[in-house]
Design goal:
By secondary structure, the protein is an alpha+beta fold. Helices cover 26% and strands 39% of the residues. Strands 2, 3, 5, 6, 7 and 8 form a six-stranded antiparallel β-sheet that branches.
Length: 157
């Protein structure tokens, strides 16, 4: 994995438009899918019934789109950071698409680009990240999203 640690908010601003990180691979297991189904109440058979899903449109159980999306938090936390920041928070999403399914056993990783950054009072920075989640062996991404995060307490310059 390539990790980008910014020394200050000024360094964040200077990196707008740049590819910032490529995460390590993460394997999606049936156990993760089942736990996500339990946490959200989404027990649709394409996710949690391997026998029936093997006869379905994807030939295997597939991860929930929101499970795939939830990996953005992990990918961003593991691959980016601002030195001296006291806290970082998820601020939301702009655009999200799921162009391809994630069959159980898939290996995923995130390509992260800093699309925008702006100061937020009193001592923070809002960052817009372009995250493309790829599945090993597939030529289509499984998730493309703009994720917003905020960081507070680091030095400006």
């Amino acid at each position: 994995m390539t990790k980008k640690s910014f020394a200050s908010y000024a360094e964040v601003l200077a990196a707008v438009g740049q590819d910032v990180a490529l995460t390590d691979w993460v394997t999606i297991t049936q156990e993760q899918i089942n736990l996500f189904a339990d946490a959200t109440g989404d027990h649709q058979w394409i996710h949690v019934d391997p026998e029936r899903a093997s006869q379905g449109p994807f030939g295997a159980p597939v991860a929930h789109g929101f499970l795939t999306l939830s990996l953005l938090a992990r990918f961003l936390q593991e691959s980016t950071g601002v030195e001296g920041a006291k806290v970082g928070v998820n601020y939301g999403l702009n655009k999200v698409r799921f162009p391809a399914p994630v069959p159980v056993g898939s290996r995923l990783r995130g390509h992260i680009k800093l699309l925008a950054a702006e100061a937020v009072a009193p001592d923070g920075m809002q960052m817009t990240w372009g995250v493309t989640v790829e599945r090993e062996g597939s030529d289509k991404p499984v998730c493309v999203a703009e994720s917003l995060s905020r960081s507070y307490g680091a030095a400006m310059g």
